[in-house]
Amino acid sequence: MTRTPNAGRARQALRQATMESHQRVDDLFSRFSLEERSSYAAFLKAHARALAPLEEIAQPDAPRLPMVAQDLAALDEALPTPFAISMPMPLPDAFRWGARYTLEGSRLGGAVLARRVAPGLPHAYLSATHDKGGWADFQRTLDEAAAEGSDRWIDEAIRGAQAAFDLFATAAGDEVAIAHG
Q1: Which one of 41, 53, 81, 105 has the minimum C-beta count within 10 Å?
Q2: What pTM value is reported for the model?
Q3: Domain at 176, CATH number
Q4: In this structure, is residue 131 part of a structural domain?
Q5: CA 56 to CA 63: how far, in whole Å?
Q6: Could you please report the per-residue DSSP string of the chain?
C-alpha cells in the first residue's frame, strides 16, 4: 500500500472524536465485576442488547453475538431482548463504517478484559479477538473507504461511531440500574 498524506486520516479523526465517549463507556462497564457470576452475566447482557442492532447495522465480517449467546447460555442466562433502534434507511456507508470501527475496536478491549474473567466462567465473547494483523488491516480498509468517500464521509463515520458508543453506554447504564434496582 502506498503511503499518502491522508493515510490514517479517518482512523485518527474517529479516535479523536470518540475519545470522551469511549472513556464514558469504559467507566460504565468498569462497574461490573468480571469475577462474580451475576455481575459478569449483567455485563454480557448489556453487551448483547447493544451488539445485536449494531451488528445488523455494521455488518462485521466476524459477528460476536453468537459468542455472547454461548457465554450467557453457559451461565444459564437467556439472551436479552436487543435494543430496538430506528435508523433512516438506507444508512450512509460511512455511518456503517463508524459503527464497525467501534465494534472492531471493542475486540481490543475484550482481549484485556478476558484475562479478568474468573476461572470457570465462560469467555468466548471477550476472547474473540482479531487475528494477527487484523486490527491494522481493518484500519487500512477503513482509510481506503474514507478516501473513496465524499467530504462528509468522516462526519458520517463519526456519527456512526458515536451512535455505537451511545448504545453501549445506554445498555451498561440500564444493566447497572437493574442490578442496583
Answers
A1: 81
A2: 0.92
A3: 1.20.910.10
A4: yes
A5: 9
A6: ----TTTTHHHHHHHHHHHHHHHHHHHHHTTS-SSSHHHHHHHHHHHHHHHHHHHHHH--SS--HHHHHHHHHHTT-PPPPPP-----SSPPHHHHHHHHHHHHHHHHHHHHHHTTSPTTS--TTTT--PPTTHHHHHHHHHHHHHHHS-TTHHHHHHHHHHHHHHHHHHHHHHHHHHHH-
In a domain, 6, yes or no: no
Domain of residue 48 covers: 25-180
The span from the CA of 2 to the CA of 116, in Å, is: 40
Check residue 99 and give its pLDDT.
96
Overall average pLDDT of the 121-138 stretch: 94
134-167 burial: b if 16+ Cβ within 10 Å, else e: eeeebbeebbebbeebeeebbebbbbbbbbbbeb
pLDDT in tens, 8-25: 889 999 999 999 999 999
Task: Identify whether 29 is part of a domain.
Answer: yes
